Amino acid sequence: MQVAPPLGSQADGSRETGCAGCGSATYIQAIMDKFGERVCRACVRETDGFRTVTKTTAKAEYLLSDSDLAVIPSELKPNPRNTRFRDMRLYLLKQLREKAYAKWGGPEGLEAEHHRRRLARVQGCAKVGHDFCDAKWDAERASSVQTCKRCGMQTEVMDF
């Protein structure tokens, strides 16, 4: 990782002071170039927000659409699972959270939207019928449990 001193200027004419997290005089140039965030090595290691996540995770956990993600800086990397698979698009977790919280009204709003969507899936399955997988033993419940493949609803099953 290349480390660069804070030489850039802001649009308002003020100068950057270095790491946005701790104010250190140095930052990682690669993160600045790819994501526009000034952050030092210590903050990358200690702060969860400077991890990168895939587009699939961004859409599932933060309920962001393709148009929402189009305005967030990203990085393309070869897929580590198989070189013939499509390249992964990675986003900075901090920027995803900011966008999602702005869209859904904060962490509580995001959680409420997750809850609303889970309920809609369960209600949709209830109308057309659940598609349960084979029963599996659940040690916490001390019984067998079947899970719907579409909505995730679980039901206890009596073993005979």
Morphology call: elongated
Q: Which parts are unreliable, with pLDDT below 50 for 5 consecutive residues or more?
A: 1-14
Number of strands: 8
Alpha-beta classification: alpha+beta
Strand percentage lies at 15-25%
> Average pLDDT across residues?
85
The run of helices and strands is EEHHEHHEEHHEEE
Main β-sheet, spatial strand arrangement: 3-5-4
Count of discrete alpha- or pi-helical segments spanning 4 or more residues: 6
Distance between the termini: 60 Å
In short:
It comes from Cafeteria roenbergensis. The chain is an alpha+beta fold and 160 residues long.
Q: How would you describe this protein?
A:
By secondary structure, the chain is α+β, with helices and mostly antiparallel strands. Among the domains are: 1-50, no CATH class; 109-157, no CATH class. It is 38% helix and 18% strand. It contains six helices and eight strands; from the N terminus they run E-E-H-H-E-H-H-E-E-H-H-E-E-E. The chain has helices at 29-35, 41-46, 55-62, 66-70, 93-104, 107-128; strands at residues 3-4, 27-28, 52-54, 74-77, 88-92, 136-138, 143-147, 154-157. The protein has a three-stranded antiparallel β-sheet with strand order 3-5-4. It has a three-stranded antiparallel β-sheet with strand order 6-7-8, with no helix packed on it. A two-stranded antiparallel sheet has the order 1-2. Strand 7 (143-147) and strand 8 form a beta hairpin. Helix 5 crosses helix 6 (107-128). The longest helix is centred in the last third of the chain and has 22 residues, at 107-128. It is elongated and about 65 Å long. It starts with a strand and ends with a strand. Mean pLDDT is 85; it is low at 1-14. This is XPA C-terminal domain-containing protein. One of its GO terms (molecular function) is damaged DNA binding. Keywords: Nucleus, Zinc.
